[in-house]
Amino acid sequence: MAKVTVIGATGKVGQFAAYSVSRIPFVTNIVLFGREGNEDVLEGTKCDFIDSFAALGRNLDLEWSINPEDLRDSDIVIINSGVPRHKGQDRIDLAKKNAKIVANYAKMIAAYSPDSIILVVSNPVDVMTAVALKYSGFPPNRVFGLGTHLDSMRLKSFVADHFNVHVSEVHTRIVGEHGESMVPLWSATTIGGIQIQNLPAFSSLPKDEMVDRVRTAGLHIIEKSGATIYGPAAAISTLVRTVLGNENRILSVSAYIKSEVHNIGDVCIGVPARLNREGAFPVPIRIDESEVTGFQQSVEKIRNVTSEIMADLDQSMPL
Ligand SMILES: NC(=O)c1ccc[n+]([C@@H]2O[C@H](COP(=O)([O-])OP(=O)(O)OC[C@H]3O[C@@H](n4cnc5c(N)ncnc54)[C@H](O)[C@@H]3O)[C@@H](O)[C@H]2O)c1
Ligand SMILES: O=C(O)C[C@H](O)C(=O)O
Question: Could you tell me the pTM of the whole model?
Fold first, then answer.
């Protein structure tokens, strides 16, 4: 039995994320949450989902709402609300506007569903995770963001394709910002259980090109089809399943770190974390020297943007 509330369920990502989550067998309640004015879209989405449940033989308690009371007793609340970027924009360009939206929802979640876990999707997700953490007042394990999980999946797929192996044979990880300064961890990449650096083909791997494809993947999709939808939604439902299933899988999410990566901390950023019913727990790691340098730079960037945004929020939305 588990209840998931999807805030921003009228958006492209929110809608398909809600649908993907509805396929998780032990999710028994879903609330499609939206803002006033969007009632018709929420009602239409609900009816469409119900048709699909009938076709699939799925039994689920599905509601839509614009009333914060309906958040109560959620196990997970997913925040998908906020403006997406368009051609020529960086995710960071969305920070100021989306921070207010995320801060408001974080306060609402704390007031109406104080024991839930918050999963942040809105971009720039590392900064928005810090905003949700502060404005919910929840402990750090109960607030995390989609982070570099999607980037890691993108890299996994490119590496599998290059080596012509099944995607499940590749384990890899990207840490740092879900954005320009992301850092691939080749030191933590294996193919068929073998360290990628120990494979002769590693020396001729077009690493920079591959990482560049990951870095630009979101914008490439946005330029071609308008929005990234299916990749994020599948990544979101993996995180939800991992948490609700108490699976203790280690996935790369945006989480608050104290000192887990080479004593670098006090920031929300993409790191490997163990996910279970209690939330996300960053795993202490040691990585290669060049990776530490990249991670440190990514942390500095996110730390600076986060403090600028917090200062702005302090003026407009004091706690
Ligand atoms: N972290 C990731 O990997 C990832 C992946 C995809 C999208 N995103 C982000 O998710 C967000 C949503 O993307 P989308 O493509 O679904 O966008 P969309 O425009 O389709 O949907 C936006 C949603 O936010 C809501 N919203 C907009 N302004 C609002 C406001 N002022 N107050 C309350 N709600 C508001 C809308 O009602 C809608 O539900 C964006 O910030 C996008 O960048 C993040
Ligand atoms: O690229 C974007 O703006 C959307 C999202 O962060 C993604 O990586 O798909």
Answer: 0.98
> Ligand 2 atom closest to Cα of 125?
6
What strands lie across the sheet with 279-282, from one edge to the other? Answer: 61-65, 29-33, 3-7, 76-79, 117-120, 143-145, 249-257, 267-276, 279-282
Q: How far is the CA of 179 from the centre of ligand 2 (A)?
A: 8
- Torsion sign, CA atoms 122, 12, 9, 282: negative
Residues 191-214, mean pLDDT to the nearest whole number: 96
Specify the CATH superfamily of domain 2-145: NAD(P)-binding Rossmann-like Domain (3.40.50.720)
Predicted pLDDT at 244: 97
178: annotated active-site residue: yes
Domain ranges of the chain: 2-145, 149-305
Atom of ligand 2 nearest to the CA of 146: 6
Sign of the torsion angle spanned by Cα atoms 46, 51, 52, 58: positive
Annotated ligand binding at 8? The verdict is yes
Domain 149-305: which topology? L-2-Hydroxyisocaproate Dehydrogenase; Chain A, domain 2 (3.90.110)
pLDDT digits (tens, 9 = 90+) for 257-300: 999 999 999 999 999 999 999 999 999 999 999 999 999 999 99
Q: Is 113 annotated for ligand binding?
A: no
Nearest CA to ligand 2 atom 7: 218
Nearest residue (CA) to ligand 2, atom 6:
218
Position 149 confidence tier, pLDDT thresholds 50, 70, 90: very high
Q: Is 58 annotated as a binding residue?
A: no
Dump pLDDT digits (tens) for 95-114. Answer: 999 999 999 999 999 999 99
